[in-house]
Write a sequence for this structure.
């Protein structure tokens, strides 16, 4: 059964074309940054914790709040996440 995410998470695409397997990194980033607690429960019911962790480690960009949450949830040091190491190298204009 497919997860039932909040439609506002995917405001910029046609939700019906979303492929839950190939678009998982995109889906995970959206749920982490913009999702509700119900969206988080949906993602953890549909995907394994192992898959969530492996995908999150390679995300290029998520908010600092989302990064701290996923680090705590997966019990993984924040320094192991790609978005943490890249954020340190390339700060954005408004956050520098």
């Amino acid at each position: 059964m497919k997860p039932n995410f909040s439609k506002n998470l995917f405001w910029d695409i046609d939700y019906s074309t979303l492929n839950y397997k190939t678009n998982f990194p995109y889906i995970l980033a959206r749920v982490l940054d913009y999702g509700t607690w119900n969206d988080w429960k949906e993602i953890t019911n549909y995907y394994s914790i192992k898959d969530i962790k492996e995908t999150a480690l390679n995300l290029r960009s998520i908010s600092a709040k989302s990064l701290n949450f996923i680090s705590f949830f997966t019990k993984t040091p924040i320094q192991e996440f790609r978005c943490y190491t890249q954020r340190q190298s390339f700060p954005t204009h408004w956050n520098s």
Remarks:
- The chain has a mean pLDDT of 89.
